[in-house]
Amino acid sequence: MTHLKESQIAALSDALEVQPAKLEKSMAVTDEALKTVELDQTAVGRLSRMDSMLSQGMAQGLREREVAKLGLLREAMARLEAGTYGVCTSCGGSVAFERLMVFPESPTCAACGM
User: Fold this and answer.
1) Which of 53, 70, 79, 112 is the most exposed place for a label (fewest CB within 10 A)?
2) How far, in Å, CA of 80 to CA of 78, rounded?
């Protein structure tokens, strides 16, 4: 069972419900940035092409982080439903309320997460 108080669970539950919607909006913007860039090789300089390729690479990295975080948020919501939210998935200890307020998707305590 969790060590969190009812009021703390309510606050964290609210944070968990808001996060996926924000993340999905961000993912839509990232998807737009990942679209193939069509460059006219004769009209665009080499640096512009390199800049476009770099931007796409950064967008791809962001997309991967967003997908991972969304998965963690869904797992956290499942732990909340199961009554194990706030319990470290590695050691079984308590995940501090403060840590969960900053990273509501965190499955581990600070000691295990570092």
Assistant:
1) 53
2) 5
* pTM of the complete model: 0.73
Q: What does the pLDDT look like over 47-91, one tens digit per residue?
A: 676 777 788 788 888 889 989 999 999 999 999 999 999 999 999
CATH class of the domain comprising 6-113: mainly alpha
Give the residue among 114, 110, 81 at the shortest CA–CA distance from 94: 110
Crossing angle of helices 46-82 and 6-34, rounded to 10°:
150
Question: CA angle, corner 23, sides to 32 and 107, nearest 5?
Answer: 140
Strand partners, 106: none
Residue 84 CB burial class (10 angstroms; 0-12, 13-18, ≥19)? middle
